[in-house]
Specification:
- The structure is a single chain.
- The longest helix is centred in the middle third of the chain and has 15 residues, at 59-73.
- α3 (59-73) packs antiparallel against α4, α3 (59-73) packs parallel to α6 (127-139) and α6 runs antiparallel to α7.
- The protein has a single domain (22-160), classed as TerB-like (Orthogonal Bundle).
- By secondary structure, it is an all-alpha fold.
- The protein is built from 7 helices and no strands.
């Protein structure tokens, strides 16, 4: 049985605490000035929390980004607490509204429908931020499953076409 964590982009206090140095490992994914934790050192270009590319995404692409990230969170058939924290921080950074938050909650309860997720429809100007966000998500728990790795490789190949 797993715990269910509700995420929100609301800036109110509270939230999930994971201890065991998770916050530092997570922050290393968003801050290029910090050394990444050994388990995620393979990430080539961590998503910078202040990345202006995130600001250039319109509302539709912001929600599409989170939908892709959530679909990758389900690649190994479970969403781990660290992945939920990553998604929570991402939606906070993207400043999603209440209706968009509800959609994200649905994607965390059940995987998004993959028939609506076409990587080739991502504008080329935004592909880097999608790749970096997904890299951050799949490495957030310190482990990359075979399913996550395979799905990510296919995703990158589709973007390269």
């Amino acid at each position: 049985m797993s715990n269910v964590f509700r995420l929100s982009s609301a800036r109110a206090g509270g939230g999930l605490e994971l201890g065991d140095g998770f916050e530092e490992r997570f922050d290393a994914l968003f801050d290029p000035r910090l050394e990444p934790a050994p388990r995620v050192a393979h990430i080539e270009t961590p998503l910078n929390q202040e990345d202006p590319m995130l600001d250039e995404l319109d509302r539709r692409d912001r929600l599409r980004l989170v939908e892709f990230v959530c679909s990758f969170a389900w690649a190994d058939l479970e969403i781990k607490p660290e992945e939920r924290v990553f998604i929570s921080r991402l939606i906070r950074r993207l400043d999603l509204d209440e209706e968009e938050d509800l959609k994200v909650q649905q994607w965390l309860d059940r995987p998004p429908q993959i028939d609506g997720l076409d990587p080739t429809s991502i504008p080329s100007a935004h592909r880097r931020v999608f790749v970096e966000s997904i890299e951050g998500l799949i490495s957030a728990d310190g482990e990359i499953s075979d399913e996550e790795r395979d799905s990510f490789e296919i995703f990158k190949q589709l973007l390269a076409e």
